[in-house]
C-alpha cells in the first residue's frame, strides 16, 4: 500500500524513520559529555518534529478527497508542535534556565487540541446521537477511573505542593488533564468503530505513545528523576513516526465498510465502563479511612464515575427503547411489504390468496356466491418500450387508483404481477354482477392516460370465475378466471368473459404452446419461407421472408397462432433479429447464384422500440455483405400512427442509409396520410382484404375498386410504389393491373417456398416467362407482315 505513494513522500517518511531510530539508539548508548548530550538530544528531537511537519505538509498539499479537513487539523498540529519544540529547545540550550510555565507550554496545550481534532477527523464514522452519547459516557467513565488513579498516585501531590506557585501547579496538572482528554477521544474512536482501519490503528498507537510519554514525564518530574536524554523521549519521537505513517496510509485506505460487531468486541465495549467503575471502588476500599487530599480526590472521583455510569444506564435504556420501537416499526413495515405491492400499495398475490381463502370460507357459511376478476392489461408493454419504465410505473399506479375507485366498497383489489390485477367480489347478488363490474372497469381503463403531455391508451382483458359454479376452492377459482382471461386474449382482447369448462382446455393448450415456443430457436425449429414479388411483366424482383415453426409434437404451427403468443411473451424481438440475419444471409447467397432481388422482412413494434434496432440492421447487412438497398422493411400502418415519434426517428436513420421502408396492410389500420410525407417510405402494400373483393361488378366490388384506384393514384403522386398482395385468381391479377398497381404477390404466382424450392420455382418461372415473351414477340411480328384486313388465323 505504501509503495504506491509519491516518491518524495516515501523519501520523507524514510528520513523520519531513520532519524527516530538514530535518536533512540543514542538514548540507549549515548556519547559525549553532559553538555554535548543535551545539545544532541534536543536538536535531534527537533529534527524528528521537523521531518514530521514536512511529511504532513506533503500530505496536505496532495489534498486527498475526503481527507482534506483531517490533514488540515494535522498540519496545524504539526506546525504548533514544531513551534513548541523549537521554543523549548531555545529556552533549554540558549537561556539555560527555562521559565515554567513558558510560551512553549501554551503551544503544547494548543497542539493537544489540534491533535485530538486530527484524530477524530481521520477516524470519523457517523453515529446516531443516542449511540454517540452512550459511547462518549463509556469513554468518560474509563477516563474518570484513570484520572482517579492518577490523582491518588501523583496528581494530588503536585496540586498540594506548597513549594510551587499556584500557576506552576495548575500548568503541571494541565498536562495530564490534556492527556486524559486525548485518551477519551482515543477510547471513543475504539468503542464506536469496533474495528479500526490500518491508518486509524497507527494513528491511535502514536497517540497512545504520546499519552504514555506525557504521563511518565509528569511522574518523573514529580519525583525529580527526569532529565533531557531520558529514555522516555523516544516515546515522543516514535509517536511522530507512527502518526506520520498512519496519515500516509490514510491516502490509500478504502472507505470504511459497514462491518458486523463480533461477540468478543461487543463484550469488551460493554464491560469497559463497569471494569473501570470496579477498579475505582477497589482503590476507594483501600483508602476510605485516609484523610489526605489524594484519598478525598479518589472518593469524589469514584462518586463522579458512579454518577456517569448511572447516566450511561439511563441513556442505554432510552436507546434500547428507541431501538425496540424502531424494530417494531420495521417488522410492521416488513409485514406490510410481504403482503403488498411496493409500487401500487395494492395487496399482492400472497395477500389476495389469503383474502380469497377467507372469502370462500365465509361464502360457504353464508351460502352465497363470490367472483374473481382476472385483469390483464393490453398494450402495456408498448408504454415501457416507447416511453420508458418510469412512465410505465406511473401508469400502473394510476390504473390501481382507477380499479379501486370503480369497484364496490366490499371488493378487494390486488396486483398479481407486472401487468396483471385481480378483483375479489364477495356476496354476489347474481351471476351477471361480476360481468357488469368488469365492463365498468374496461370503460374506466379506456380513458386515456396523460404521461408527460403524451396521451396513451391501455385496454384490458378480463376473465371471470364464480364460486362455487366454476371452482371448489380458492386456487381453482383464480385459475378459472385466468383461463377465461386467456380466452379473451386469444379472441381479440378488450372484453369480459365468464369461465366455462371449454376455456380451461384452451388455457392449457396456450400454456403448452408458450412452453414449446420458448425454446424454438435453440432447437432450430424455426425456418423461413420466401414468397415471390413480381412486377406486372412477371419478372421476379423480390421475396418476402415469412417465419414458420414446426414443433416435434405440435407439428406445423400456423403463424396466426404462434406470432401473437411470441409478442405476448416478448420473444418476438429475438425471433425478429434471427429472421433479419437469416433473410439477409439468404439474399446474399442468391446473389452469388445470379438471383438478384430485394428481400422483405416484417418488423414488429417491439423491435422498432429497441434502441439498438438500427444497429441490428447494420450488423445483419454487414455480416451478409448485402447492400442496404437490397433490404426492405415492412411495418404496419397502426405502428406508424400510434408510435409516430419513436418510429419516425428509427425509420429516418434507416432510410438515410438506403434501406427501403414499406407500409404493410395499408388501408385497414388507423389511416393518417400525414406520415406518408414525413417518413422515408418507399412503397405501400394494399391489404389482401381489398384485393380479394375485386371479383365481380357489384356495388361493393366497385367501391373497393375505387378505393384501390385512389390509393394507387395517391401513392404514385408521392413517388411511392404499390404492391397488391393476396393475388389468388387471374381476374384479381388483371384488375389490379388495370388499376395501376406496380407489383404483385400471392398464391396465384407462388406460395411461400423453402429456399431450394424458391430457386427451382424461379428457374422454371423464368423459362416460362421467356417463352411467353418470345411468343408474344413472334405474334407481333407476324401481325405486322400481313396485308391490311388479314389476321393470322385467316392466313392459315
From TrEMBL:
Residues 368-501 form the GGDEF domain. It comes from Deinococcus humi. The keyword Zinc-finger does not apply. Residues 772-796 are annotated as: Disordered. The keyword Disulfide bond does not apply. InterPro entries: Cyclic-di-GMP_PDE-like, EAL_dom, EAL_sf, GGDEF_dom, Nucleotide_cyclase, Rev_trsase/Diguanyl_cyclase. This is Diguanylate cyclase (GGDEF)-like protein. The chain crosses the membrane at residues 43-60, 72-94, 106-123, 135-154, 166-189, 201-222, 263-285, 297-315.
Amino acid at each position: 500500500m505504501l509503495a504506491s505513494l509519491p516518491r518524495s513522500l516515501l523519501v520523507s517518511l524514510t528520513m523520519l524513520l531513520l532519524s527516530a531510530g538514530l535518536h533512540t539508539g543514542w538514548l540507549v548508548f549515548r556519547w559525549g559529555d553532559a553538555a554535548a548530550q543535551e545539545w544532541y538530544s534536543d536538536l535531534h528531537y527537533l529534527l524528528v518534529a521537523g521531518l514530521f511537519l514536512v511529511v504532513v505538509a506533503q500530505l496536505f498539499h496532495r489534498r486527498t478527497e475526503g481527507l482534506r479537513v483531517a490533514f488540515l487539523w494535522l498540519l496545524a498540529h504539526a506546525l504548533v508542535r514544531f513551534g513548541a519544540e523549537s521554543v523549548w529547545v531555545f529556552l533549554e540550550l540558549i537561556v539555560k534556565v527555562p521559565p515554567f510555565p513558558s510560551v512553549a507550554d501554551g503551544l503544547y496545550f494548543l497542539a493537544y487540541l489540534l491533535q485530538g481534532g486530527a484524530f477524530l477527523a481521520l477516524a470519523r464514522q457517523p453515529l446516531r446521537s443516542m449511540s454517540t452519547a452512550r459511547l462518549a459516557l463509556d469513554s468518560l467513565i474509563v477516563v474518570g477511573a484513570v484520572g482517579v488513579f492518577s490523582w491518588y498516585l501523583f496528581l494530588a501531590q503536585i496540586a498540594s505542593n506548597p513549594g510551587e506557585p499556584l500557576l506552576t501547579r495548575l500548568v503541571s496538572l494541565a498536562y495530564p488533564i490534556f492527556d486524559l482528554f486525548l485518551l477519551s477521544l482515543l477510547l471513543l474512536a475504539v468503542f464506536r468503530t469496533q474495528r479500526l482501519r490500518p491508518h486509524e490503528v497507527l494513528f491511535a498507537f502514536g497517540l497512545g505513545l504520546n499519552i504514555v510519554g506525557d504521563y511518565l514525564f509528569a511522574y518523573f518530574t514529580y519525583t525529580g528523576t527526569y532529565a533531557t536524554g531520558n529514555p522516555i523521549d523516544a516515546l515522543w519521537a516514535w509517536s511522530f513516526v507512527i502518526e506520520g505513517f498512519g496519515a500516509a496510509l490514510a491516502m490509500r485506505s478504502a472507505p470504511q465498510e459497514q462491518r458486523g460487531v463480533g461477540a468478543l468486541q461487543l463484550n469488551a465495549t460493554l464491560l469497559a465502563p463497569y471494569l473501570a467503575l470496579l477498579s475505582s471502588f477497589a482503590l476507594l476500599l483501600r483508602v476510605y479511612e485516609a484523610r489526605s487530599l489524594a484519598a478525598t480526590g479518589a472518593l469524589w472521583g469514584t462518586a463522579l464515575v458512579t454518577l456517569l455510569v448511572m447516566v450511561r444506564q439511563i441513556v442505554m435504556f432510552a436507546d434500547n427503547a428507541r431501538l425496540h420501537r424502531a424494530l417494531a416499526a420495521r417488522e410492521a413495515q416488513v409485514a406490510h411489504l410481504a403482503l403488498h405491492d411496493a409500487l401500487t400499495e395494492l395487496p399482492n398475490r400472497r395477500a389476495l390468496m389469503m383474502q380469497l381463502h377467507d372469502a370462500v370460507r365465509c361464502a360457504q357459511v353464508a351460502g352465497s356466491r363470490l367472483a374473481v376478476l382476472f385483469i390483464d392489461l393490453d398494450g402495456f408493454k408498448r408504454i415501457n418500450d416507447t416511453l420508458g419504465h418510469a412512465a410505465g410505473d406511473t401508469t400502473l399506479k394510476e390504473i390501481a387508483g382507477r380499479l379501486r375507485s370503480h369497484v364496490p366498497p366490499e371488493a378487494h383489489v390486488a396486483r398479481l404481477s407486472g401487468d396483471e390485477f385481480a378483483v375479489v367480489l364477495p356476496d354476489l347478488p347474481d351471476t351477471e354482477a361480476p360481468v357488469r363490474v368488469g365492463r365498468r372497469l374496461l370503460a374506466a381503463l379506456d380513458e386515456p392516460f396523460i404521461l408527460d403531455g403524451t396521451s396513451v391508451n391501455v385496454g384490458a382483458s378480463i376473465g371471470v370465475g364464480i364460486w362455487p359454479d366454476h371452482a371448489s376452492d380458492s386456487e381453482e377459482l383464480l385459475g378459472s378466471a385466468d383461463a377465461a382471461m386467456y380466452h379473451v386474449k386469444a379472441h381479440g382482447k378488450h372484453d369480459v368473459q365468464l369461465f366455462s369448462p371449454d376455456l380451461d382446455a384452451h388455457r392449457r393448450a396456450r400454456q403448452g404452446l408458450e412452453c414449446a415456443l420458448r425454446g424454438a430457436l435453440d432447437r432450430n425449429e424455426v425456418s423461413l419461407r420466401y414468397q415471390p414479388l413480381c412486377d406486372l411483366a412477371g419478372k421476379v424482383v423480390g421475396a418476402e421472408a415469412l417465419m414458420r415453426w414446426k414443433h416435434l409434437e405440435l407439428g406445423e404451427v400456423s403463424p396466426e397462432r404462434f406470432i401473437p403468443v411470441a409478442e405476448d411473451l416478448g420473444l418476438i424481438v429475438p425471433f425478429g433479429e434471427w429472421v433479419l440475419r437469416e433473410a439477409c444471409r439468404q439474399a446474399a447467397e442468391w446473389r452469388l447464384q445470379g438471383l438478384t432481388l430485394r428481400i422483405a422482412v416484417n418488423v414488429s413494434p417491439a423491435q422498432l422500440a429497441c434502441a439498438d434496432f438500427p444497429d441490428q440492421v447494420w450488423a445483419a447487412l454487414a455480416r451478409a455483405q448485402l447492400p442496404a438497398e437490397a433490404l426492405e422493411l415492412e411495418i404496419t400502418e397502426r405502428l406508424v400512427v400510434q408510435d409516430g415519434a419513436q418510429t419516425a426517428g428509427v425509420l429516418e436513420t434507416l432510410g438515410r442509409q438506403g434501406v427501403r421502408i414499406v407500409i404493410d396492410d395499408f388501408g385497414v389500420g388507423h389511416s393518417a396520410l400525414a406520415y406518408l410525407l414525413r417518413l422515408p417510405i418507399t412503397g405501400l402494400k394494399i391489404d389482401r382484404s381489398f384485393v380479394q373483393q375485386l371479383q365481380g361488378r357489384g356495388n361493393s366490388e366497385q367501391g373497393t375498386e375505387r378505393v384501390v384506384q385512389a390509393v394507387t393514384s395517391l401513392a404514385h403522386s408521392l413517388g411511392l410504389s404499390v404492391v397488391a398482395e393476396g393475388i389468388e385468381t387471374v381476374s384479381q391479377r388483371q384488375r389490379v393491373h388495370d388499376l395501376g398497381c406496380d407489383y404483385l404477390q400471392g398464391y396465384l404466382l407462388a406460395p411461400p417456398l423453402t429456399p431450394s424450392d424458391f430457386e427451382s420455382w424461379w428457374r422454371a418461372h423464368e423459362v416460362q416467362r421467356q417463352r411467353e415473351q418470345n411468343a408474344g414477340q413472334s405474334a407481333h411480328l407476324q401481325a405486322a407482315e400481313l396485308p391490311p384486313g388479314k389476321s393470322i388465323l385467316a392466313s392459315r
